[in-house]
Design brief:
- The complex is a heterodimer of chains A (about 100) and B (about 220).
- Chain A is mainly alpha-helical.
- Chain A has one domain.
- By secondary structure, chain B is mainly alpha-helical.
- Chain B folds into two domains: about 120 residues, RNA polymerase sigma factor, region 2, helix turn helix motif (Rna Polymerase Sigma Factor, Chain: A); about 80 residues, Winged helix-like DNA-binding domain superfamily/Winged helix DNA-binding domain (Arc Repressor Mutant, subunit A), CATH 1.10.10.10.
- The longest helix of chain B has 23 residues.
- The radius of gyration of chain B is 19 Å and the shape is globular.
- The N and C termini of chain B lie far apart (about 55 Å).
- About 5% of the residues of chain B have low confidence.
- The chains are: A mainly alpha (about 100), B mainly alpha (about 220).
- At the A-B interface, helix 1, strand 1, helix 2, helix 3 and helix 4 of A face helix 3, helix 4, helix 5, strand 1 and helix 6 of B.
């Protein structure tokens, strides 16, 4: 399986050669956008995608969902620090 | 809601100069496009054309592997850049532009596949791809002979991937070629995460078995 993973990694740098003038066709299409196409393209799904890609909260939520183990460790670490600080503060005030 | 940019794009000398360049550049790095994105957001048309030049092959390749059809891949590529053009002013840069356009391409392809599956017999997706396509490598090592055999093996791997059925091909492409997490793939394909992991594992196994027979 190691070879397969290696080849797939190399494949990330491969591109498929498109037809000639693809870039020109893209620019031509952009030059000729009409209202109907704007409405079709800017549909609910795309606007939802835009809102999510521009939302820090959503991006953070996605990162936590994608890496639950790391996120849980992070939360435990932060709670540990808070507990330690609380313990130190309690000790200092008790001594006083 | 951000305001839409004015249209159309005039045929400038810069545009023609950019389009006349034949050299296939490396896969774009995030740092290279930062300036272009900043200018394009302000309405600089030459900068936007530079982004098209930089990312069109990348978008096309992603679409081709998912859709397995050059005409549909070209259509999706155009649609993706139309979407980018209409919305780039609102792009906040929370992720890199490359990541953003990659996700936009994948979403557009998945939408197209869903639309197709409603209208066509699902067995069509099991047919082997018949059209020719040319794979180009954008990074080269110094050892030419080793490079050649490795490139041939990679081309064969890609050929196997492209001819896989959709339930294996899409998750494998998203995971191993596009760096999606299992969770993201599950959300996108609306399949349980366990099914996604199983299908990816099976897809890799298929590649391994077919590579053995190829040699």
């Amino acid at each position: 399986m190691n070879n397969v993973n290696k080849y797939l990694k190399i494949a990330r740098d491969a591109v498929i050669k498109p037809e000639e003038r693809m870039e020109e066709k893209i620019l031509d299409r952009i030059s000729n956008i009409d209202e109907e196409e704007k409405e079709r393209v800017l549909d609910e799904r795309f606007l939802d995608f835009l809102n999510k890609s521009n939302s820090r909260t959503y991006q953070l939520e996605q990162k936590i969902r994608s890496h639950p183990g790391v996120s849980a460790l992070g939360i435990i670490f932060i709670l540990g620090i808070i507990a330690l600080l609380a313990y130190i503060a309690r000790t200092v005030f008790t001594e006083e | 809601m951000w305001s839409l940019p004015k249209l159309p794009i005039p045929r400038t000398a810069d545009r023609n100069r950019i389009l006349d360049q034949d050299r296939i550049s490396d896969i774009p790095k995030p740092s290279q496009d930062r300036d272009l994105v900043a200018l394009a957001k302000k309405g600089d048309k030459a900068a936007f054309e530079g982004l098209v030049k930089m990312y069109s092959k990348y978008v096309y390749t992603t679409a081709f592997f998912i859709l397995r059809d050059s005409h549909e891949a070209e259509d999706v590529s155009q649609e993706v850049f139309v979407k980018v053009y209409l919305s780039i002013k609102g792009f906040r840069g929370l992720s890199s532009f490359k990541t953003w356009i990659r996700k936009l391409t994948v979403n557009t392809c998945i939408d197209k596949l869903r639309l197709k599956s409603k209208h066509k017999d699902k067995k069509v997706s099991l047919d082997k791809i018949t059209e020719d396509y040319e794979v180009v490598f954008t990074k080269f090592s110094h050892s030419l002979e080793k490079n050649f055999f490795r490139q041939e093996a990679v081309k064969e791997v890609l050929n196997i991937v492209v001819n896989m059925e959709e339930s294996y091909r899409i998750p494998l492409i998203l995971r191993d070629l596009q760096d999606y997490s299992y969770r993201e793939i599950a959300d996108l394909t609306k399949k349980p995460i366990g099914t996604v992991k199983t299908n990816i594992h099976r897809a890799r196994k298929i590649i391994k078995e077919r590579l053995k027979t190829y040699r």
